[in-house]
């Protein structure tokens, strides 16, 4: 670390001064020292303070750059921030100019405006931007007023929020919530369409990482970000595909093939089409959606909506979706290159369910299946309006989100009891708590701390599942605690169906002959580098098939990234340095959003309860259970968002993205 000084969480530090050498305990300075490879950071400014790593740097110029970004991002709703950011930026510009200096009166005015902004601004921009300048004025007035010639070679700034950082696609959540407050659902949807076309679908099934990071969680509960997204899309009246006027396929650029019409493939194709590349998606099923089509039941995601936000959008943008063509059977990667495609994106998912490791796994036992296969069969029957009907009881093994989809689906198609067997406690279940709650409501019973031991089979048919009870050695709320079988606890759950919902994997049988790509992680995924390139030139992969089974939003984020990398590849450019991702990495590793800053709610209200079908009215059909927010509820929920925007600035000694890693 160079000789540095700064101000962090209210405390000054100065390695040039023996009495201030101690760094604040909450500052993870090593995580902020380098931005891109060995390119040193000259200065870093955030909502918690500033660090000047290079003492040659002009403190006033760094803060001027920071306030410039702040003034560009003040939304203007409240006077202290609207006028304050503009006024302070102008004064800092004047103070950092060649011949100008400020009078004591001007400095006093800056101080007063900063204090006023912190105390009375409506949101995170006005409340936190002045923090660093206040610290500099109080503890480093001489450095602030010193005239220094050195200027950093480059800088990068970001306006973000805890919810944005938690979202894999980095959706500007407070921005779309703002538009809902203003009854502008069209603009709210526009914010979301910058990232992906599946707005209404994601608004229904997203695993909402953002809500776990929402600062309102510290008060009465997180903002219902997911359902506000759904509201934005639903209140347009028509699906988002109508927003894209049909256009002809772009002609002038190299064409790209996307294999798989799931979340990753659709999003990759969407961004490439918007950038003017001709794209064909090749899909093995008769409809688009991937795991969202076959793995998520209709009562959570209506499939007409999914089609309108996937294949219809792609076709309106001039792309083609070629259905019922199976990769590895009907065509190969070589065929696609021979057909003139210049780049290929693989978004084939992890579409193969995992069984329980029983001797019967490979055989044909009636009533024994994996969760993916079960959901696929039911979806097919429901979409043909002839839902399957099963007699007898069903046992689901596993307790993740696929297990919840399986048990809630089984309730709807069978006359018997449905139960779930899970090795750990309910608290450690990986399923979304909302899904668990709904499953309880729909009558599913749960066997916690229970393990499956053996199928009970008669005449080639399942008649039960032999299980045993487990005891936890150590902390029952830790996944690391050892589980041991309780002697003599064996029991049989009589049933006619056992569904294994314990995982999914890549269908690696698809990759045969010359299409053999390097695989990773015990051969369960396609190996890709940080640019999503596979071992074969011009072939990229993303989503579940490259990272393992994850959520729709993670797949879409990978699709967007792949589109960027494919464009760079086709243009013959070097892959660009991902500055935005690097800032996210720094936020995470330095714990920049782990501060205990007080939440200042605009209003104090609890989270809106989403209306839904009564349990009695939903267990014999596939009608959508959650009914969505009404206009009034959506506005009320949107008002709960505190706009926790934070401005971050990095200034570096060398141009960003040019330093050898
Ligand atoms: S609402 Fe926030 S961004 Fe808008 S002017 Fe006020 S403090 Fe600034
Ligand atoms: S209150 Fe709003 S801006 Fe703050 S974290 Fe939650 S959703 Fe994001």
UniProtKB/TrEMBL annotation:
Domain annotation NADH-ubiquinone oxidoreductase 51kDa subunit iron-sulphur binding: ranges: 60-105
Signal peptide interval: none
Origin superkingdom: Bacteria
SMART domains (UniProt xref): NADH_4Fe-4S
One annotated GO molecular function: 4 iron, 4 sulfur cluster binding
Database matches in SUPFAM superfamilies: alpha-helical ferredoxin (SSF46548), Nqo1C-terminal domain-like (SSF140490), Nucleotide-binding domain (SSF51971)
Protein's name in the database: Pyridine nucleotide-disulfide oxidoreductase
Protein's organism: Turicimonas muris
